[in-house]
Write a structure and sequence with these properties.
The protein is α/β, with parallel strands linked by helices and 358 residues long. It has 13 helices and twelve strands. Helix 2 packs parallel to helix 3.
Length: 358
């Protein structure tokens, strides 16, 4: 028997929905607010969650985000219940990655169809996963799911209810589709790049990679930063001091290292704080540093990254260590380079990549 957690603050509505679902042979747990729902979810691990958005103490979106921090709920179908007039709430719910939404008032058929559809989709996903587990699925990063759900959710809202939205609402949703589409494109491009690196390794092209060379110049790097950051307001806070040098690495791999380290520095530091990119020749090597004044890392986090860099990325990539770090690590292997990290919580991080000269 499949189980459903129902979180709804209106007692009459909660009782009615529970009765309908139980009549369809679902096991139903109910909660009156997000806090109670969160605690109940952790205790019962339901197969699906139906939740109102506007609730006291903890609202539905906050509860969803809290549950997503637990691996047990990464693939649990989550459906939001919301009044059609609360368009902003619906947009926010789909943006964070919810699977579906039902607008109040709804019919019995609407509710049951949505529940059955989401269970069916989950069953199909599980089936596909089992068939492809040993080949493709283990190579698909979890990051693809959230932007894809957002794109599908907003486009579905527009196609079914466009006449009920104002022009401003439509523009906001289209902008969100565009933004998440770009995020998805970036993730896919990174994944393709990582697959190419694995292919080079598997074909034993290490000798060919080590013969590549690239002339690092400060002017060219400054020019490339605009393409890395796009319209980001962080460009003016980035300081570049690169000694001109020819390194034993190709241009695409060098730019990938800078991109990944720079994106992390931007992500974990406040707007307006400086980010320094440096490069100098030292003891027959070229040392590239990316330094920020951001949140920094605890010692155990630094040790986790160091451990990651000593083993195969496949072992850690899909458990949250990150695709960007896997790319950097693989490039270092192919170019006989090394990485050093210094970080202090609340003060910032310095990452140094040591690359052989050409």
């Amino acid at each position: 028997m499949k189980s459903i957690l129902l979180v709804e603050d209106e007692p009459d509505v909660r009782a009615t929905i529970q009765e309908l679902l139980e009549a369809e042979n679902y096991r139903v747990f109910s909660a009156k607010d997000g806090k109670e729902g969160y605690d109940l979810a952790l205790r019962e691990i339901p197969d699906m969650i139906l939740s109102d958005i506007k609730m006291p103490i903890i609202n539905g979106i906050q509860m969803y985000e809290m549950l997503q921090k637990h691996d047990s709920f990464k693939h649990t179908p989550f459906i939001f219940l919301s009044a059609k007039v609360d368009l902003a709430d619906i947009r926010q719910g789909m943006a964070v990655g919810a699977d579906d939404y039902i607008t109040k008032p709804f019919t019995i058929e609407d509710l049951l169809d949505a529940v059955k559809l989401r269970f069916k989709k989950k069953e199909n996903i599980i089936k596909d996963f089992e068939e492809l587990r040993e080949s493709l699925v283990k190579r698909i990063p979890h990051e693809l799911r959230t932007p894809l759900i957002s794109i599908l959710g907003f486009s579905e809202i527009l196609s079914e209810n466009i006449d009920s939205f104002s022009k401003d609402d439509i523009i906001k949703m289209v902008e969100q589709i565009n933004k998440t589409g770009k995020q998805l494109h970036t993730i896919i491009e990174k994944y393709i790049f990582f697959a190419k690196l694995l292919s080079l390794e598997n074909e034993k092209h290490l000798g060919k990679i080590s013969q590549y060379s690239f002339l690092v110049e400060q002017f060219n790097l400054k020019y490339d930063l605009a393409s890395i950051l796009g319209k980001s307001d962080r460009i003016d806070s980035i300081q570049v001091e690169m000694e001109t040098c020819t390194i034993a690495m190709d241009e695409a791999n060098f730019n990938a290292i800078i991109r990944e380290l720079l994106e992390n520095a931007v992500k974990f530091s406040e707007a307006g704080t400086p980010i320094r990119i440096g490069g100098l020749i030292s003891e027959g090597k070229y040392e590239v540093t990316v330094e920020d004044r951001g949140t920094g890392m605890a010692p155990e986090s630094v040790e986790q990254i160091k451990s990651f860099c000593q083993f195969e990325p496949d072992r850690y990539l899909y458990s949250g260590v990150g695709l960007g770090l896997a790319i950097v690590k693989k490039i270092m292997e192919l170019s006989n380079s090394t990485m050093e990290i210094k970080s202090k919580k609340g003060e910032g991080t310095i990452v140094k990549i040591i690359i052989p000269l050409a």
